[in-house]
Amino acid sequence: MSYSFSLEAILAIGLNDAIGNKGALPWHIPSELRLFKSITEGHTMIMGKNTFASLPSLLSNRHHIIISNSIPVTDGVHIVSSMSEALNKADELHSEKVFLIGGVSVFHEALHECSVIHVSRIMLTPEADTYFTFNPQHHRIDTSLCFRDPSTQVDVIYQRYGRII
Ligand SMILES: NC(=O)c1ccc[n+]([C@@H]2O[C@H](COP(=O)([O-])OP(=O)(O)OC[C@H]3O[C@@H](n4cnc5c(N)ncnc54)[C@H](OP(=O)(O)O)[C@@H]3O)[C@@H](O)[C@H]2O)c1
User: Fold this and answer.
1) Of the candidates 52, 106, 100, which has an alpha carbon nearest to the alpha carbon of residue 82?
2) Domain membership flag for residue 154
3) What is the mean pLDDT of residues 3-24?
4) What lines the ligand 1 site, CB under 6 Å?
5) What would the pLDDT profile of 113-157 be if each residue is shown by its tens digit?
6) Residue whose CA lies nearest to ligand 1 atom number 1
7) Which domain range does residue 147 map to?
């Protein structure tokens, strides 16, 4: 399917494929959160209901599209009932870039359609209750960089995957 915007995804994964725990991220890594902000700021995000609930507040300077069939109309966000409605809403918003930001069913449904996937490999094996196995078949790493978060000393490998087929 082709869109008038670049469809991208962004996720952070532990060594055990952990992505979430008790409705939040399984870690708190400030420099990784800054990386998320720098990549997504000024654009549109598509997320599931639980990911929306995990945000501390609305994220500045970004459109929020929430896929849910159970939450009521909420100020400042767009609520839709399916991925195809979410993509149509992103089109209406004239977004240049649209990021899938989770959770699991959002990634399962549309990650393969993304032109770019931003992955932070978190060098931890945390306690978790939400897992995602990232096994790209249509994407290859085109950029990679390692950094150590100064406040937690946790190592992170950022990998940018571009679509190959
Ligand atoms: N590490 C990361 O990169 C990352 C990214 C995102 C989230 N997380 C973490 O993961 C956890 C949340 O993720 P999650 O997988 O539990 O939940 P989620 O995908 O955020 O939310 C699930 C709910 O969203 C709706 N939904 C999602 N996708 C849908 C689809 N394609 N079609 C229709 N409805 C859809 C449904 O709500 P209704 O039942 O209302 O219809 C579903 O019950 C939290 O712990 C969060 O912190 C981590």
Assistant:
1) 106
2) yes
3) 97
4) 11-12, 19-20, 23-25, 47-51, 54, 67-71, 82-83, 101-106, 109, 130
5) 999 999 999 999 999 999 999 999 999 999 999 999 999 999 999
6) 19
7) 6-16+38-163
Distance CA 136, CA 149 (A): 26
Let me know if residue 119 belongs to a domain.
yes
Structural domain total, the chain: 1
Domain containing residue 86: CATH number: 3.40.430.10
How remote is the CA of residue 17 from the centroid of ligand 1, in Å? 16
67 within some domain: yes
Residue 101 belongs to a domain: yes
On the 0-12 / 13-18 / 19+ scale of CB atoms within 10 A, 13 is middle
Q: What is this structure's pTM? A: 0.97
Residue 165 pLDDT exceeds 90: no
